[in-house]
Design a protein that fits this description.
The protein has one helix and 13 strands; from the N terminus they run αβββββββββββββ. It is mainly beta. A twelve-stranded antiparallel barrel has the order 1-2-3-5-6-7-8-9-10-11-12-13.
Length: 270
Amino acid sequence: MLRTGWCRTAVLVMLGLPLAARTAAAQIDYRNLDDERPVVTEDAYPIERYAFELLVPYRYESEASGEQLHASILELGYGLLPNTQVGVHFPLAAVRAAGDTEWGLAGIQPFALYNFNTETRWLPALSLRGDLSLPVGALGGEGIRFTLRALATRSWGLTRLHLNAARSFGPEEALSAAEPAPRWSYSLATDRTVLRSSLLLVGEIVIAREVREAPVEVNAGIGARLQWTPTLVLDAGLTRRLRDEGPDIGLTVGLSHAFALRGLLPDAGR
C-alpha cells in the first residue's frame, strides 16, 4: 500500500509551489487530456508557453493474478517554447503480490512534446512526443527505454476525436513497475464538453503489446475532467480489460495545477 508519507509529500509540494509563484491567467485546462489523466490517450496540444503544470495523481490497478499496484506518478510540465512542452515524471509505486509489498521510486521519465500545427480546415492538430525511461529507484526496472508517440486531435464543436500511436525501443525485461512503456500501442478516444464548458467526459479504446511475443491487450476506459477553479482541475477515470490480458480494474484520481513563476515570464520586472 502507498505510505501516508507519500500523500503528505505530494500535498506539500502541490501547496508549496504556488507560494513562490504567480498564478497564470484563467485556464481552460480541463480540455487538456494528459497521458493517463484520466485515460491513456492524450490530445495533441501542449500547455501554454511559459506556463507550468503540476500533476498529482493516484492510480490503482488490480490484475486477475491478484497483483495490485498503487502509484502516484507526479509530473511537472513547462511550456518552454511556442508549441513545445517539456516535463518529467516521478513515479512512486507500491506493488503487492503473494502477500508481500514492494515500494519505492519507479524510475525517472523526462519527456518533450512538439505541436507541428493546430487544426486547419483539412488537417487535425498533429504532435510528436518523446519519452525517456531511466532505471532509477527500487522499482525503476533495468536499462534505458525510449518511446516515440504520434498524436492527432480533431474537433467538431464541443466534441473532439483523438488518435495516439506509440512505439518503444530498448530492453523488454524488468520494466518499470509504474506506467511502463509498451512495445507498441494504439488508442482512439472521443471527448465532449458539457456543464457550461467546465466538465469534459471522455471514452477510449486502447490496443497494446507490452513486450515482444506478449499477448495483445485491449482495454476500455472512461473518465472526466472538471475545472474546479481557473487553475485547478480534478480528474477521475476507470479502466477495464476487454480480453484475458490487462487490468481487471484500474482507477485513477488526480489534481492538476497551472501556474507561472515571475522570474521566467518575459515581462518580469517591468
